[in-house]
Design brief:
41% helix; alpha+beta; 27% strand; 128 residues
Length: 128
Amino acid sequence: MKKIWLFVMIIGLFTACQESLEDRCAREAQEYTKKKCPVKLDNNTTLDSMVFERQTHTLHYYYRLTGLADSDSILQKIDAIGSLKQELKNTTSLRVYKENKYRFAYTFHSEKDPEKVLLDVVFTDKDY
């Protein structure tokens, strides 16, 4: 009987130490932002931060556009929404979040006018 009780206690201890998926997502977003952001992705695009919004299960990416990309019309011209959706579909590192039907939001701000939102889009499990 003592062996069974000890086994149950050890299993309980290991399961109590596991991080929930929400906690993991929040931690990873915070660590990435702290260690790597802002990160210049190309000549005109900078990832400023990533945030996990617990209430909506949304991983939110905030970008800043500069130069030629700092325009409403250019984002429509290049089909930015379609490109983002395709990239999300192809990103294997987000598989666990996609399997759990998390949402992914992308907000692009202008560098010339930081208050101006050039694009704001949210993808749900129906999109990927």
